[in-house]
UniProtKB/TrEMBL annotation:
<feature type="compositionally biased region" description="Polar residues">
    <location>
        <begin position="149"/>
        <end position="181"/>
    </location>
</feature>
<feature type="region of interest" description="Disordered">
    <location>
        <begin position="140"/>
        <end position="181"/>
    </location>
</feature>
<feature type="signal peptide">
    <location>
        <begin position="1"/>
        <end position="21"/>
    </location>
</feature>
<feature type="region of interest" description="Disordered">
    <location>
        <begin position="22"/>
        <end position="46"/>
    </location>
</feature>
<feature type="compositionally biased region" description="Basic and acidic residues">
    <location>
        <begin position="27"/>
        <end position="38"/>
    </location>
</feature>
<keyword id="KW-0732">Signal</keyword>
<feature type="region of interest" description="Disordered">
    <location>
        <begin position="217"/>
        <end position="237"/>
    </location>
</feature>
<protein>
    <submittedName>
        <fullName>Uncharacterized protein</fullName>
    </submittedName>
</protein>
């Protein structure tokens, strides 16, 4: 359902940042905003499922405890929030794995450039490898945060949450839904642009006989096409 799209938005934006400008590696930039695409430890995404969905339910339970006449099973949306946190945790896990894979790929390319004496290109790929390693660590941390939040909500199934706070948080989440479709369309378009750039880079390297780099860029093109398809209407239900 549309509410889940907000869960996946930030993780998906990270995938856009993996695009490389052909033919040499360049800093990862978000094609939508022009900013370097990464997840900062101070990013507000760490405070909830989505930047606009700022209430941290784990902190809420810790600060306000349990109470009230309604059990968790009777509060509309409580189980949806558990599923939402679990979905976000899975997405962060997948993104962390993709960053670890990119880290290994850049290290391999850097080693190849070093063997060929191209130390400038090797240094550029080592910088990209370092970027992906940090991102993998951050996404792993966010995965654990969402798993903890899901447990905090689900673990109190014999008690209750404050319905007013829950309703307020659900309202804030609902308020963001109107713009999500447009945002997803922009990100999907950026993924398709990145896929096209990688496709052109693959053709260029293939024509030069560098089949290792051609395979790398072909693989990145497939990743971006898959990411664009995942943002198509109805694909995130």
């Amino acid at each position: 359902m549309l509410g889940f799209r907000s869960i996946l938005l930030a993780a998906t934006v990270l995938l856009v940042g993996s695009a490389l400008a052909a033919p040499s590696p360049s800093p990862h930039r978000d094609p939508v905003t022009g900013e370097r695409a990464h997840l900062s430890p101070a990013d507000t995404f760490g405070n909830g499922i989505h930047p606009a969905y700022s209430h941290n339910f784990g902190s809420h339970v810790a600060a306000h405890g349990l109470g009230g006449p309604h059990s968790l099973h009777e509060i509309p949306g409580a189980h949806e929030l558990v599923r939402a946190h679990n979905t976000a945790a899975r997405e962060h896990g997948r993104t962390a794995a993709e960053h670890r894979s990119a880290h290994r790929a850049h290290l391999a390319v850097a080693q190849a450039h070093t063997r060929n004496g191209n130390h400038a290109a090797a240094a550029a790929h080592l910088e990209e490898a370092h970027f992906h390693r940090k991102q993998a660590a951050l996404h792993t941390s966010e995965r654990q945060r969402h798993r903890t939040n899901a447990s905090s909500i689900h673990g109190h199934n014999s008690g209750s949450l404050h319905t007013a706070r829950l309703s307020s948080s659900r309202a804030r989440l609902g308020h963001t839904q109107a713009s999500l479709s447009h945002t997803h369309a922009k990100i999907a378009h950026a993924h398709l642009d990145a896929a096209h750039s990688h496709h052109l880079a693959a053709q260029k390297f293939r024509s030069e006989g560098d089949h290792e780099m051609a395979r790398y860029h072909s693989g990145q093109a497939r990743v971006h096409r898959t990411s664009a398809a995942r943002l198509a209407p109805g694909s995130l239900n």
